[in-house]
Specification:
With about 140 residues, this protein is mainly alpha-helical. It contains six helices and two strands; from the N terminus they run αααββααα.
Length: about 140
Amino acid sequence: MRSDSRLSRMLHVLVHMQLLGGTETSDTIALMLKTNPVVVRRTMAKLKQHGIVSSEGGPGGGWRLLRAPEDLTVLEVHRALTDASVFTLALSADHPACPVERAVNARLSHAMSRAEAVLAEEFGATTLADIAREFQPAG
């Protein structure tokens, strides 16, 4: 099963942008993430749509944080990247008339909803600045 690392990768980029205090190009970000600049532009565009970053073309252009790190939460970044659940567990739909399948799905749905609420609370309480403060320079 493929995992989705966009949140972790974009938080990595955003913290670097905050620490460096400037503009980063798609090429620079792509090198950091070992990916293609087109993938970076596509992902950063989602953050731009949610007012997290801006972009400027041409020489000296690139991506810039629009929000203060103290005002930008992990939850906001997550929601900018996807509206999907953080859990990739799927419920069975093989036998919708079966009371056992319905009971299993009800129990799993309830547990996943509760877990997602706790995770959203934690993501909502964690800012980019909180993560940057945890950064320990090598050396």
